[in-house]
Amino acid sequence: PQTEVLGHPGCVAxxxxxxxxxxCDAVVSGKPVCAIPVFGDQPINARILHRMGMCKIVGAADGxxxxxxxxxxxxxxPDELRADVRSVIGDADFARAARRWSERCRAWGGGAR
Length: 113
Hints:
This protein is mainly alpha-helical. The protein contains six helices and five strands, in the order H-E-H-E-H-E-E-E-H-H-H. It has a single domain (2-107), classed as Rossmann fold (3-Layer(aba) Sandwich). Helices cover 53% and strands 12% of the residues. Strand 2, helix 3 and strand 3 form a beta-alpha-beta unit. Helix 2 (20-29) crosses helix 6. The two termini are 14 Å apart.
């Protein structure tokens, strides 16, 4: 269902933990991401999306987490999350980068299957 949600025209961005599957889904769908990575590969995947220009990482400065992921995952301030989501939705650069990477991915033959 995540692929269908991301593919819906009403979906303009996604809030994700950035597991590998959701990371691929976001790239293929061309949706910018507000990332809340917690453990495992999630922080690395979020950083990749950030370097691609299509992601803001909640609790990060310039894509680098201020605290360990596990330390802040349960304590995200609602105002901080709201501000980060609004910045992703309101900044056309995130959307442009996401569309550009989606086009590249599709040109290379698609995404995760």
